[in-house]
Design goal:
3 domains; Enolase-like, domain 1; FAD/NAD(P)-binding domain; alpha/beta; about 375 residues; 5-stranded antiparallel sheet; 24 strands; binds flavin-adenine dinucleotide
Length: about 375
């Protein structure tokens, strides 16, 4: 029997493998991964500097430990170069591996913005354990870090690096942090609380150029201002990894296109996690992939199981301003109702009939998360 082959050892790949083993202990399972195959929680990467964690202490299990735990063959440091959907094989260079069923759990790349200057190549991103280890090694005591992007990941890094004793400048084209998830009032509160712990904001502008000045970098902004930094970290968004699927003739759009059964356009090829677009939704968060992993495991074990997503509020790891968001669906019609609550803020997004479609909670208002989440419509019914 040809094995089930999973490409990727992130939370999506390992969770679908674990869920599958609860239902099917026998079918041979092979996991091919371009990285070390260590099992770790990626969200920790933007909240681990302050507490001094190393890449080794973030990794919970090695590839060998995972292989034993889930009874699988795991090949780390193995870049899959092609998929032949008709022949049911994947290629690693010249080597071919046959699959019965194939699961794409390839994740997403950090987007890189075009920036001028002779120091532009010094911009780094942190998207996996290796990146984290390199960035951590480059940080000296009290480094000045320029952080491009004030979204979820950028805001978390800003809080974490500042707590870790570094001096952080955040640059974003938007007028307030987390502008895609928060109304202006919530963004202003987050901005103010992070400024309170020492973050310097450069909002409504962008990085024009980065130039080397000895061992330091001069960061020049479109608004004409400039400052010196030791490191530049970019966190401006993620792009699903679609190239491998696209080259194999598998349908892609913003992500690898799948239906609610996680089926791609190719027979016996499934996908989940940050690389997919499911019913038009690209949701690069942990909760959607956990729901997907359970449903896809049941499908792989022989019981076709469509996935559904309930409302899945996201905890923003900014202890300076505890924040939980459940943004309304893209294009949803409605208005934000804002109320200040103790030292926090409650923002409810409601439609014309008064139906709750999303929320953003800060400070003490975060205690209302569970009660409010129950009132929200499902993300995918
Ligand atoms: C810093 C940071 C903080 C985050 N914080 C949160 C949070 O607080 N809450 C939340 O819900 N989400 C958060 N996220 C998002 C969340 O971590 C991701 O949604 C999730 O980890 C994605 O898992 P994945 O398995 O789909 O992708 P990945 O973890 O990216 O795994 C992809 C895997 O595919 C492998 N691969 C890629 N190409 C190939 C190839 N050609 N051949 C073989 N293997 C290949 C890679 O090596 C890797 O093993 C955060 C993300 C980041 C970067």
């Amino acid at each position: 029997m040809n094995p089930i082959v999973i490409l990727g050892s992130g939370l999506a790949g390992y969770n679908v493998a674990r869920e599958l083993r609860k239902l099917d202990k026998e079918t041979p399972l092979v996991i091919l991964s371009a990285d070390s195959g260590s099992f770790y929680s990626k969200p920790m990467l933007s909240s681990a500097f302050g507490s001094g964690k190393t890449a080794q202490s973030i990794a919970m299990n090695s590839a060998e430990q995972m292989a034993t735990q889930i009874n699988a063959t795991i090949r780390p440091d193995t870049q899959v170069t092609a998929i032949d959907a008709a022949a049911h094989t994947v290629s690693i260079g010249e080597e071919k591996i046959a699959y019965g069923k194939l699961v794409l759990a390839l994740g997403a790349d950090q987007i890189r913005l075009p920036i001028g200057g002779d120091g532009a190549d010094a911009v780094v991103t942190v998207n996996d354990l290796d990146d984290y280890a390199k960035f951590r090694a480059a940080l000296k005591d009290q480094s000045t870090v320029a952080l491009i992007g004030a979204g979820l990941i950028g805001s978390e890094f800003a809080n974490d690096l500042t707590t870790g004793g570094h001096s952080v400048h955040v640059i974003d084209i938007a007028a307030w942090p987390l502008s895609r998830l928060l109304p202006p009032e919530g963004g202003a509160l987050l901005q103010q609380k992070l400024a309170g712990i020492g973050v310097t904001w450069h909002l409504g502008t962008s990085v024009a150029s980065i130039d080397r000045e000895g061992s330091r970098l001069k960061v020049s902004l479109a608004d004409g201002s400039a400052f010196d930094a030791d490191l530049v970290l970019s966190a401006v968004g993620l792009r699903p990894r679609t190239a491998l699927a696209q080259a194999a003739g598998i349908k892609t759009h913003r992500g690898i296109v799948v239906n609610k059964l996680h089926e791609t356009s190719a027979p016996d090829v499934y996908a989940l996690g940050d690389c997919v677009e499911i019913e038009g939704l690209v949701l690069p968060y942990v909760m959607p992939l956990m729901n997907s992993a359970r449903a896809l495991a049941a499908t792989l074990a022989g019981k076709a199981t469509p996935v559904s997503y309930p409302a899945m509020p996201v905890l923003v790891k900014t202890p300076a301003c505890p924040t939980i968001v459940s943004p309304p669906a893209t294009g949803a019609q409605g208005v934000w109702e804002i109320s200040a609550k103790d030292d926090g803020l409650k923002a409810l997004f409601k439609n014309g009939e008064g139906r709750l479609l999303g929320f953003a909670l800060h400070g003490k208002a975060t205690a209302e998360r569970a009660a409010l989440a129950q009132q929200l419509p499902p993300v995918l019914a």
